[in-house]
Design a protein that fits this description.
With 181 residues, the protein is mostly beta strands. It is 14% helix and 55% strand. It is built from one helix and ten strands. It has an eight-stranded antiparallel β-barrel.
């Protein structure tokens, strides 16, 4: 009787193991090509929360990002009777970029090159770009190293992100942490 019970148990456990193996192999595996990240510096100027995604199902290649952030800067007004009045303001920024990720398909390392623009909610004296005829849009670029896990999860980025306005180039940098999915 013990031999029959052991044989049946062994036989059933073999079927259960095969069923579990078949279930895992038949599932479709998604490739993480989207990410959400928080960034200090960069196109969001001070701080921004961003969504980034590829236009194809690959984690590399052409894609884009859009975010929302804020910046704190001085606002000056001039009154002929009292002179200049300076106030510190925080305004919303909206960075938008097209970017391209270079790297090997099975590697966790990638290099990002991007170009775009950042809308700033109000004309402020940011990085000495303020002029009466100045625009509320800064040109942006990004040259960043990305560490992206192949299966998705925690990721980070660091790099050089110059800003352009009024014919000037302001060297700038960025650090971000996020989640790939």
């Amino acid at each position: 009787m013990k031999i029959v019970c052991l044989t049946v148990t062994f036989f059933l456990s073999g079927f259960i193991a095969m069923a579990q193996t078949e279930g895992v192999s038949s599932e479709t595996k998604t490739i993480p090509n989207k990410s959400f990240f928080a960034e200090v510096g960069g196109p969001g100027v001070l701080f921004s929360a961003n969504f980034d995604g590829r236009f194809k199902k690959s984690p590399l290649g052409l894609g884009g990002r859009i975010g929302i952030g804020f910046v704190t800067a001085d606002e000056s007004t001039y009154d002929p009777n009292t002179g200049y009045d300076y106030r510190t303001r925080s305004v919303i920024t909206v960075p938008v970029q097209l970017n391209y990720l270079f790297g090997k398909p099975n590697s966790v390392n990638a290099f990002e090159v991007g170009i775009g623009a950042t809308y700033i909610g109000k004309k402020l004296d940011i990085l000495d770009y303020y002029e009466d005829e100045s625009t509320q849009v800064l040109g942006t670029a990004s040259f960043m190293y990305r560490r992206m896990p192949k299966e998705g999860g925690f990721s980070w980025r660091i790099g050089f992100t110059p800003l352009f306005a009024n014919g000037l180039i302001q060297p700038f940098g960025a650090v971000s942490v996020g989640y790939n999915f």
